[in-house]
Design goal:
The chain is α+β, with helices and mostly antiparallel strands. The protein has two domains: about 30 residues; about 120 residues, no CATH class. About 35% of the residues lie in helices and about 15% in strands. The structure holds zinc ion.
Length: about 170
């Protein structure tokens, strides 16, 4: 009888731990933020990348491009969210719309400062701008441009942008 109570107690404790663990994982997931902008990660624009060989999940491709430019480290885009379905796409097959009127990151919250990088701060600079949204087909991307503006880009274009240098503000 006593053994049974102890057994039930252990089982109950285990169940509580599992529930707590699941709750923790779920809330952690919701609280996911971009390591660079400090913004919440929007499922329609998120990207999986490596910068200098380290893996990150960012709020958008742009944020990763800016980080690569500011640090001079090589960027590899591994996956990008399809703007329409939020499914992760192989960026090689994606069609990007750059600089449209839609920017989900900027509609969320202001980006964090880039401490220690004041030299690259520009007036009106936002590390999530111009937006670069991914689509699974050229037709979808072109239809989006017709409605919201922007230009069509492929992965090579974005990779090239990640390597160009940021204009430095000259100190007087
Ligand atoms: Zn962003």
């Amino acid at each position: 009888m006593r053994k049974r109570i102890i057994f039930a107690g252990i089982l109950g404790l285990g169940a509580v731990l599992v529930i707590l663990g699941a709750w923790y994982l779920l809330t952690q997931r919701q609280a996911k933020v971009c390591p660079f902008s400090g913004r919440g990660i929007h499922p329609q624009t998120r990207a999986l990348v490596t910068i200098g060989g380290r893996k990150y999940e960012t709020c958008c491709v742009r944020c990763a491009i800016i980080e690569a430019r500011q640090t001079g480290k090589p960027l590899q885009i591994l996956k990008v969210a399809d703007f329409q379905t939020s499914k992760l796409l192989n960026p090689k097959n994606a069609w990007f719309v750059e600089g449209s009127a839609v920017n989900l990151c900027m509609s969320m919250s202001p980006a964090a400062e880039s401490p220690g990088r004041e030299g690259v701060y520009l007036r009106g600079f936002d590390r999530c701008s111009p937006s670069a949204l991914a689509f699974s087909s050229e037709e979808q991307a072109r239809a989006f441009i017709a409605e919201h503006g922007g230009v069509l880009r492929r992965l090579e274009d974005l990779q090239r942008e990640s390597k160009s240098t940021v204009p430095q503000v000259k100190k007087p």
